[in-house]
Amino acid sequence: MLLGMSEQGRQPTEEELRAAYEAELKKVRVDDLLIQTILSLISLGGRRAGLAPGTEDERDPAQVRQAIEGVRALLPLAEAALGPDVAKVRDALSQLQMAYSRLAGQPPEPESKPAEPAAEKPEGHGPAQSSGRLWVPGQ
Fold first, then answer.
1. Long-range contacts of 64-68 (CB under 8 A, 24+ apart)
2. Domain contains 126
3. Is 79 exposed, middle or buried (0-12, 13-18, 19+ CB in 10 A)?
4. pLDDT in 10s for each residue of the chain, 139 residues
């Protein structure tokens, strides 16, 4: 039976629609909804990053960031249900994060920060050392 028409060729009643909706809800698992939401966020985030051909005018860094944060929040809840496909989802998320970095004009964050160069010491003695009030070993 199609949801739009009943067996008699008429529009279904509100009660029939509600019963059909309830029957469908019995089949849906939360894992399925989490996975579908994650995939939808990745797909929409890709569009908002202008990754798909013809979507360059849809670029919106704020929306891309929100999609990334949504996926990052939901992914731990769906990892078990994804099984081996979790690697594909993580890869898609990484690609979306790289696109966001380029789109936002920020270089991608390195995995570890390089050590900052030591500040150069000024030539000569400092004011405390020159006044004779600072004890410096060997002087």
1. 64/96, 64/99, 64/100, 64/103, 65/100, 65/104, 67/41, 67/42, 67/96, 68/93, 68/96, 68/97, 68/100
2. no
3. middle
4. 455 555 667 899 999 999 999 999 999 999 999 999 999 999 999 999 999 999 999 999 999 999 999 999 999 999 999 999 999 999 999 999 999 999 988 554 455 455 555 555 555 555 555 555 555 555 5
The token pair that represents 18 in the structure block: 């509600």
Q: Is 127 domain-assigned?
A: no
Q: Is the dihedral of CA 45, 46, 47, 50 positive or negative?
A: positive
Closest CA to 61 of 74, 51, 73: 51
The CA-based diameter of the chain, rounded to the nearest angstrom, is 106
Total structural domains within the chain: 1
- Where in the sequence is the domain holding 93, given as residue range(s)? 30-103
Q: What is the pTM of this model?
A: 0.64
